[in-house]
Amino acid sequence: MQKNILLIVLIVATQSIFTQNNANTPYSLFGLGVENKTATGGLTGLGNTGIAQSTPYEINIFNPASLGNLLSKSFLYEFGLNGTYSTLKTDNISETSNNGNISHIAIAFPLRKNLGMSIGLLPYTKTGYNIDIESPVEGTLDTFTTRITGSGGLNKFFIAAGFQPLKNLSIGIDFSFLFGSIEQESQVYSDSFVSILDQNYYNGVKLKTGFQYKLPKIKNIETTIGGTFELPTSLTGKQTRTSYKTTTTGSELTIEDEVENDLDNYELPTSFGLGITSKFNNTITTSLDFRKLMWNDTNQELNNERYTDESIYAFGVEFLPNKTKYSYWSNVKYRFGLNYNTGFLKISNQQIDSYFVSVGLGLPMKKNSQNNFNIAYSYGKEGTLNNGLIQENFHKITLNLNFVGNWFSQRRID
């Protein structure tokens, strides 16, 4: 039964990811859009920590080294949903928007003892904006309006593997393929109407490595440290442009018809991350992560704005009342997290930072089951009202279903 449910979910989820819902995120105007803050398992409720998190019952996309700890003959599969309600503010106006989407689909399984593999698909970036620009007509007192809209985003397909060469040490590698398109349409309203539609296609590969090491146990405290390193990469791009003009008489004139152009490569930076996770008496687990993305080294031009190095600080704590008891609620995991991101954009000499606070629950599908329904609520802010910029306040609900199967076990018939 679970296999049939999974098959249906995979088909629906894959279609949904490839046709991403439009968001309304003004800062997605820059670069490839806003990166989706996707986390697997219960890690959203833990502030998107996870570099040093390792459990044989959940998939961890933050560090491939965790795959070295999968149990023999197990099979993990997971998918997630999220929905966001946002309020966009400037000094003068405020408006609301909402959107939802599949956040990810992933599977993981052991290839042999101490060697595991994971495959998954998720939205990597999202783009959604609608901007009106009023400009003067040269030599007159008249003005004309240009409306710029954007949609789309990039997807990420990954294959990862983790290996445990020593008892307390795991290492891993993640190979990802990024692909997708971003559509931007400029509509100019003056004496005549001009529409310019650009479809920008990008693709490329990313490589990430990671490690996790379990320190010697001190009394009842188990501590794991972890690290990741991601190589820089260039995404190649192509553009297809279609434009036409509608005159005051209503006649339509084609200016360009699917004209193809090469785009400048988009550079993704070197990044590294460090994390530490401590478990106290198998009841309380704390996680602390730090990530650094070296955007300054990409030397990319961005009109009057610029990229700047990005730092991400995250903290999470999980409480499990008593796993040894047989009551359902003693097996529920309670989570809390904090996340602060300095951002990678500087506009009008103002850093576009963000933060969110999260709470979550890990609910077993049934008593003493390793199958979990993870739910998390996050509240956060991105941007600022300073220097005439836009601030986004958002509420986000994340739902993850995590199943643990035994698909590699053969049934015995007596």
From TrEMBL:
Q: Which domain of life does the UniProt lineage start with?
A: Bacteria
Q: Which Gene3D superfamilies match?
A: Outer membrane protein transport protein (OMPP1/FadL/TodX)
Protein name (database record):
Aromatic hydrocarbon degradation protein
